[in-house]
Amino acid sequence: MDVASGQVTCIGFKADIILWDFPKQELLARLSLHEGKVKGLSFSPRGIYLVSLGGQDNGRVMVWDVSKREAVCGSPASPRSAGNANVIMCSSCRDEMFVTAGNFTIRVWELDAATKKIHPSECYAGQLRRITVCVQMTDDDDDFYLGTTSGDVLKVNTSSKVVTACGPQKKKFSMGVTALLLPKTGGLIVSTGEGTVALCTGSDFQVKKRMRVEGAVASLTCRGRDDQFFIGTNKGQMHRSAYATFKEELVAVCHTGAVNDIVFPEGHSDLFVTCSTNDIRVWYTPERLERLRITVPNVTCHAVEVTRDGMVIVSAWNDGKIRAFVPATGEPMYEINNAHNLGVTAIAATSDCKQIISGGGDGQVRIWNIGEKTQKLREVLKEHRGAVSCIKINKNDKEGVTASLDGTCVIWDLVRYVRKQMILDNTLFKCVCYHPGEYQIITSGTDRKLWDYKESTVTHVGVGHSGNITRLKICPVNKSIVSVSADGAVLIWK
């Protein structure tokens, strides 16, 4: 089974289409003719052709021969009098037919394989002027459906090229139609930008069943047996629903932005905490499920720490605040305002839970005394010139090490509050930790390699993240590794 993916680049640069052998996870070919962005891809029913739609900078439809890995022909996707095409979809029965739609344009295309040309036919919509963002073809190719930003659905006949139905007429879907699905049980499933998923029937698209999910729905897809379907949202959630019950069940969730830090509570491998934009999340490892979400809108959490007694989650935020929460409920405990001028970028807690050490975007390291009702600044350490990226404290709380993006690591005396040693290198230190014996420190960057420490050799290379790995932790019982990255993923490795 082949899979195709499209690239997004910059203006003037080629945007590749990559063909993959999905079972073997191998790259088969790169197809390069589009520029800037590949906006849509669709395989013909028998997999003979792949049709692609370029973005605004290219605006062309291309037909590719999958077996030969070459272009068959191409054409501008929309007429000059209309806007850009947004979506493309192949016929369900014929390899030579596909449709495109977009800003005030709907086209049905026919491929002439002998002459290697494609011929568009404009569809008549009367007085309707719509911006289309999704398309779904019926199994018999008689009709196709279009979802619009106006909140209605258009039905177009492929033979007559005429819009035959439009609805709902009175109460349109709020925030536009984002995805469509045609179940074999009948009707049309419509999803919207406000998170509504509805089952519509009839030529006027009356809503018979309705459910609501968090965030805008980004995609709908059916399961192989066609008794269930899945819902994906822009909040990083995936839901499952049966056609009969039409009730959502959350099956997977992830962060919506880069994951900046990860920490295991002392002595616990079944739970870990991650932080990202707007929230901190607590995960249950055996079931791969989110147990708790602490939301702070419109700010980013750079680092998180769980005190050794497990009673407090301490976090560092880009608005310059240090926030503490109750791990069991997520309720706020205290805030330290203006902890750093350029945001708090790193944090750590001593083993007696009486002090926390924070690092900021200004390069300063600050030590705070934490009481039952008070939080006071104890000391300010100034050595780094760039943002502090990581802080670690040794077991007896008498020494600590900080890593910075200025290429320095500083080892601190936490009794006299002075620098003991500085390490300089031509790199960006992303994280640092103590060797278990605490006679060495280990620094790291953003690759995906696992090293044998004694032999200094690579033992494993993990492939899974699509972005830079921001943090990696080994669970306390050494049974698994959890890595987080800039792509928002949290991966558990055996």
| Average predicted confidence as pLDDT | 91
Shape assignment: elongated
Q: Main beta sheet, described?
A: 7 strands, antiparallel
Helical residues, percent: under 10%
Q: Which structural class do you get from the secondary structure elements?
A: mainly beta
Count up the helices. Answer: 0
State the total count of DSSP E strands: 45
Give the helix/strand layout.
Blueprint: E1 2-6, E2 14-21, E3 26-35, E4 38-43, E5 49-54, E6 60-65, E7 70-76, E8 85-90, E9 97-102, E10 106-112, E11 117-122, E12 132-137, E13 143-148, E14 153-157, E15 162-167, E16 177-181, E17 188-192, E18 196-201, E19 206-212, E20 217-222, E21 228-233, E22 237-242, E23 249-253, E24 261-263, E25 271-275, E26 277-284, E27 289-306, E28 313-317, E29 322-325, E30 332-336, E31 344-349, E32 355-360, E33 364-370, E34 375-382, E35 388-393, E36 399-404, E37 408-413, E38 418-424, E39 431-434, E40 441-444, E41 449-452, E42 457-461, E43 469-474, E44 481-485, E45 490-493
Antiparallel strand pairs: 1-2, 2-3, 4-5, 5-6, 6-7, 8-9, 9-10, 10-11, 12-13, 13-14, 14-15, 16-17, 17-18, 18-19, 20-21, 21-22, 22-23, 24-25, 25-26, 26-27, 27-28, 28-29, 29-30, 31-32, 32-33, 33-34, 35-36, 36-37, 37-38, 39-40, 41-42, 43-44, 44-45
Word description of this protein:
- The protein has 494 residues and is mostly beta strands.
- 0% of the residues lie in helices and 55% in strands.
- The protein contains no helices and 45 strands.
- Strands 24-25-26-27-28-29-30 form a seven-stranded antiparallel β-sheet, with no helix packed on it.
